[in-house]
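Note to self: keep these together.
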Amino acid sequence: MFCKVENATSIRKKFLRIIDKKKIYIISKDSAARAILMPVEVYEELIAAGRKKLPALAVLGARDCGRKKALETAAAAGAAEKYFSKIIFVYGAKTENYGKFFKSADVRTVFNGKPEMPVITSLKLAVSALSPGDDFLVFCFLSKSPGKNLLMKMAKKIPIARKKKKGIVITKVNGCPSHPVAMSKKYFKML
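Structure:
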């Protein structure tokens, strides 16, 4: 792997030019390595090394639902972590502090500044936080904890949906459609 070492001051001046390049930069400050800047593809390969293809989980929480419900949902997501490649928490102005409750190897948080349209805007933001190789997104709401078992069932349905080329997978609770819901990559651009 070829890496270029740059001083933090010099890289700051040309940051917008170098982020489009497919190089890895080690950023130094005070004669010590402080950070690494790398293409997202390289980062994803490092994170996914040795793991099978898993869907991503998005928790949509642009509107406040109370601490108790947020804790339940975060606990369910954390307990089901091994079934997902990452957890994406989309938060609003009043729910930002709930992000610290999500425990996973890869938690990504995205701010939704438009809480008047929480679902569609939050889904768009969740898709923007996906990795290039992600082909399924399972989403649930902060206000209604899906429970670990329901998330596990949904994650296990994704490989079957991939084989059958199904684009949307909907859970049923007591025979009625419910959430979480999963959507495939072909729907991401329609949002």
